[in-house]
Amino acid sequence: MLSVVVPAYNEGKTIKDNLLKICEVIGQEFDDYEVIPVNDGSKDNTHEQIMIAVSDVASCGKIHPVSYEVNRGKGGAIKAGVAAAKGDYIGFLDADLDISADHIVRYYKAILDEKCDVIIGSKMHKESKLKYPFARKLFSWCYFVMLKVLFGLSVLDTQTGVKLYRGNLIKEISPKQRVDGFAFDIEVLALASSMGATIKQMPVNIVFTRNESFGRIKVSDVWKMFTDTWKIWWNLKIRRNYK
User: Fold this and answer.
1) Which of 195, 213, 220, 232 holds its CA 20 to 30 A away from the CA of 116?
2) Phi/psi at 38 (nearest 5 deg)?
3) In 26-51, which positions are buried (b, 16+ CB within 10 angstroms) versus exposed (e)?
4) What is the Cβ-side half-sphere exposure of residue 77, based on CA atoms within 13 angstroms?
C-alpha cells in the first residue's frame, strides 16, 4: 500500500482541486493507496475544502484527512500524517503541487527497482527542470553548504517537497522527530542516514506557482530553519541523545 501525506496550511483556494488531482494521478497506477491531507491549524477554509474533496466521488474514498486547530509547522504536519498512514511506503508531497503527483509514481517504481530505503527529489540533480525565483535558488545553495559542513550527508538537496520512505523506516524515525518547522527534513534524513538507510536522489520538475519569491516562507521561518538546523546538529553529533 502507498500512503501520500500532504501537509496543508491556509491552502483553501486550491486544496480541493489539488487533492482530487493527486487521486487522479496516483489512481491511474495504484489500486491500494491513500492520500492523507493534514490541515495544519489553518485559519481559512482549508478544512472545509478538504472535506468537500473527501465526499467527492472522484476521490474514490481514498482521502483520509487529519486535522487539528493549532498550527504546528510543516514538520509537525508531516509527523501527524505519518502517524496516521498505513502504507508500506509513505511519501510526502507539498499541497501547492508545484511538484506534480506523478513524481511519487516514478519514485515508487524506483524505490522498488533500486531496493533503497528513501528517495528524495533534488533540485540539484542534473536532470531536474526548475522554474522558480533566483532568491530560492540562492537560499537552497547556501543551505546545502551549511548542511554539508554540519552533517556531511551525500545528498545535495534536503528541502525539496517530494520524498518517499520505506514505511517501517519513517514510522521508526517519526516519533524521534523534535523539529516541527521546515528543518524537519534534515532531521529525518540525518536520522535515516545514522541508521544506515540507503538514500537515493532523483530529478524534479518544479513550476513555482506563488507570486512571492519565497512563497509562504517568512524571514522568521528562515531564521528558525537555521537555528533548528544547529539544534539538530547538536542533538545528533554532540549530545547523541536521539532515543
Assistant:
1) 232
2) -115, 110
3) bbeebeebbbbbbbbbbeebbbebbb
4) 28
SS3 232: helix
Cβ atoms 195, 171 nearer than 8 A: no
Residue 32 contacts residue 88 (beta carbons within 8 Å) = no
Pairing of strands 118-122, 162-166: antiparallel
- Dist. CA 209–CA 187, nearest whole Å: 27
- Amino acid occupying residue 146: M
Tracing cell 547556501 back to the chain, one arrives at 142
Cα 129 to Cα 121, 134, 155, 206, distances in angstroms: 11, 14, 18, 6
CA distance 34 to 63: 6
In tens, the pLDDT along 28-78 reads 999 999 999 999 999 999 999 999 999 999 999 999 999 999 999 999 999
The pLDDT tens digits of the residues spanning 2-20 come to 999 999 999 999 999 999 9
